[in-house]
Amino acid sequence: MISQIVRGAAARRAGLLVACLAVVCGTQLVGAGKSPMRILKYDPAAEKMDLFAALDAGAVTLRVVAHDSEGGNVYIENLSGKPLTVNLPEAVAMVQVLKQGFFGNNQPGGANGNANGLSSAGGGSGQSGGAQSLGSGFGQQNNNNGAVGSNNGNAVPNGIPGVGIFSIPAERVAQVPFRSVCLNYGKPDPSPRMTYKVVPLENYSSNAVLQETVRIFGRGGLDRTVAQAATWHLTDKLSWNDLANIKKYTLPGVYTSQVPIFSTSELETAQKLVEQATKQSQERPAAAPKSNSTPGAVTPSVRTASARNTK
């Protein structure tokens, strides 16, 4: 009993540390006098730009603060000198930038275990090359009187009807929460200390069904656990039986009893999701990688604030 109490206290301290790191990272990004805007509105008079076009033009910078594999926040700073409406893509990948300036090895691959105490009977090796890559989407459908909803944890914001779009005043920073799924089973979880960048999903993977799955997830209204099962089935080639055998320890890091992370009903729904994504991907024109990059590669021209500041 005492050991369980000690482990519980350690877990609470670890959770508090992660929360503090997220606050510090956000504060360092915006700097003095640039508190991030959490309630975002749409200005019809502002110039409109797609996110990646704005990044390439130097009109905005972007930083990712991933709390873990389930989500975090992106901070978008308007450097254009005038109000700017940013149109967020429906689906993106978020990849770790290693200290050497290279990107993590994002090739799909499972593993027999990972840092979170998960274990599985299926999968190959996917441990090398840094932490997990993430799949996320911003194409929200709900309206909140013309404003993007307030941020509560990893909640997805309410967007302007039909698109993930909002306006940022000149020299201000928008804080946009995101939900995400892991794209590499078996790799370590992201943390606020890690540097991530956002890239077009079609540059990360040429798998049209995966792209459609992340789009559906990004629109909201879909259980994340279901989306995660479907994603690992597509990225790591884990069978539904393999996914049913993935378990977690009842106390993280403690080798006691294990429980499945996916229920039977969640796996059944995930199968239907893959079927839906397959059908929709067949109806959608194929998306070519941007900036002449090869499928699966990270586009060099898509840069984050940290990359731009090195110039």
Please provide a brief summary of the model.
This protein has 311 residues and is α+β, with helices and mostly antiparallel strands. It has one domain.
Number of helices: 8
Q: Oligomeric status of the shown chains?
A: single chain
Q: Any low-confidence stretches, pLDDT <50, length ≥5?
A: 1-32, 105-117, 119-128, 141-163, 292-311
Proportion of residues in β-strands: 15-25%
Rg, Å, rounded = 19 Å
Quantity of strands, as a count: 14
Question: Distance between termini?
Answer: 55 Å
Percent helix: 25-40%
- Alpha-beta classification: alpha+beta
Q: Can you write the helix and strand succession as a string?
A: HEEHEEEEEEEEEEHHHHEEHH
Give the spatial strand order of the biggest sheet. Answer: 3-4-11-8-6-12
What is the typical, i.e. mean, pLDDT? 74
Count of the domains: 1
Largest sheet: 6 strands, antiparallel
Give the overall silhouette: globular
Describe the structure.
The protein is built from eight helices and 14 strands. The chain is α+β, with helices and mostly antiparallel strands. The chain has one domain. The strands form four sheets. Strands 3-4-11-8-6-12 form a six-stranded antiparallel β-sheet, with helices on both faces. Helix 4 packs antiparallel against helix 5 (224-235), helix 4 packs across helix 7 (264-283) and helix 5 (224-235) crosses helix 7 (264-283). It is globular.
Topology record:
Elements: H1 2-30, E1 40-41, E2 47-50, H2 51-57, E3 60-68, E4 71-78, E5 84-88, E6 92-96, E7 118-119, E8 134-136, E9 147-148, E10 164-168, E11 173-182, E12 196-200, H3 201-204, H4 208-218, H5 224-235, H6 240-244, E13 247-251, E14 254-260, H7 264-283, H8 305-308
Parallel strand pairs: 2-5
Antiparallel strand pairs: 1-9, 3-4, 4-11, 5-10, 6-8, 6-12, 7-13, 8-11, 13-14
Helix pairs in contact: 4-5, 4-7, 5-7
